[in-house]
Amino acid sequence: MTKNIFTGTIPALMTPCKPDRSPDFDALVRKGQELIAAGMSAVVYCGSMGDWPLLTDAQRQQGVARLVEAGVPTIVGTGAINSASAVDHAAHAARVGAQGLMVIPRVLSRGTAVTAQRAHFSAILSAAPDLPAVIYNSPYYGFATRADLFFELRNEHPNLIGFKEFGGAEDLRYAAETITSKDDGVTLMIGVDTTVYHGFVNCGAGGAITGIGNALPKEVLHLVALCQNAAAGNAEARVRARELEEALGVLSSFDEGADLVLYYKYLMVLNGDAEYALHFNEADCLSDSQRNYAEAQYRLFRDWYADWSRQGGVVAECA
After folding, report:
1. For 28, what's the count of Cα atoms within 13 Å in the CB-facing half-sphere?
2. Dihedral through CA 268, CA 164, CA 76, CA 110, nearest 10?
3. How many CA atoms lie within 13 A of 235 on its CB side?
4. What are the pLDDT digits (tens) for 199-229?
5. Which of 32, 86, 174, 255 could bond 72 through an S-S bridge, CB–CB 3.0 to 4.6 Å?
6. Is the peptide bond before 318 cis (omega within 30 degrees of 0)?
7. Nearest-angstrom CA–CA distance, 148 and 42
8. What's the 3-state SS for 122-167?
9. 8 Å CB contact between 209 and 237
10. pLDDT by residue (tens digit) across 266-318?
11. Under 8 Å between Cβ of 103 and 121
12. Helix, strand, coil content of the chain in percent (nearest 5)
């Protein structure tokens, strides 16, 4: 099995669109390379942020292949309506040389049945046994993976080396208490932007998968570095990490809602990335009020960060 890719800070890439609302894979690759150059350890494609339900299987696999070919360390999302498609995405990831899998539960058909989910997870993990994988736990997929099922799967599939938690603070703590603290070989990945501090400091997370980091890579990397220092016992880092996470709070909270991709693409446009202006469905757009709110909060944070980041001490050391 290849080395554990689930460390550090990993943005979940969004899929940019051409004027005809088809995927712009050239822009996708540019953004992936840009984020790795900024200090990210890898990227995820296609998770929820990548709009996997709106792409064909061929489009998803084309995006994966292009990222890998360009030298971008890539973790592949396996979300699918049926297990056969999910297995095909896993096998394709291994075939083209991706670095990891994000194993998403079976949705819709028998999505609440533990036996169905066990078979679904097992089939995906078996399709790419040399790729390190994490199970993605999210209430939005309608199934909560618990410790007994996780360790049943891990006993059979040594490539299952982690757990990505998108359920919030309480679910992160559950994962830390009952799954990732049991076995040093299992990594906890923070999956929602509002729980970065809690995940690293209180739950022993090994890394974070981020949405807001697409638009604010420097600032999110700064937050993670402070949190990692705080988790090592640095009292000043603990204070400064809380300050930065609080200032990011509204922007990070977009990650918790149904419009997360709409918001984060809009922040990318504010950064000058015009290829993120469109969505696959023309009706998928922010209201004028939402755009105005996002602009005001983005401006407020950037002004605050420019002032706050001038201080020395651990803030400067972790920048």
Report:
1. 31
2. -110
3. 0
4. 999 999 999 999 999 999 999 999 999 999 9
5. 32
6. no
7. 29
8. HHHHHHCCCCCEEEEEEHHHCECCCHHHHHHHHHHCCCEEEEEECC
9. no
10. 999 999 999 999 999 999 999 999 999 999 999 999 999 999 999 999 999 99
11. yes
12. 55, 10, 35
C-beta of residue 131 within 8 angstroms of C-beta of residue 119: no
Joined tokens for residue 65: 């292949």
Report yes or no: 162 and 134 within 8 Å, Cβ to Cβ.
yes
Supply 315's token pair.
């803030």
**How many other C-beta atoms are found inside a 10 Å radius of the C-beta of residue 256?**
15
Cα dihedral value 258, 211, 190, 218, nearest 10 = -150
Number of other CB atoms surrounding residue 136 within 10 Å: 26
Take residue 196 and report the two structure tokens written for it.
Answer: 């970065």
DSSP 45: -
Q: Is 117 left (phi over 0), alpha (psi -120 to 50) or beta?
A: alpha
Residue tagged 């990397």 (tokens): 221
Contact 135, 79 (CB under 8 A): no
143, 117 Cβ separation under 8 angstroms: yes
Residue with tokens 């049943």: 152
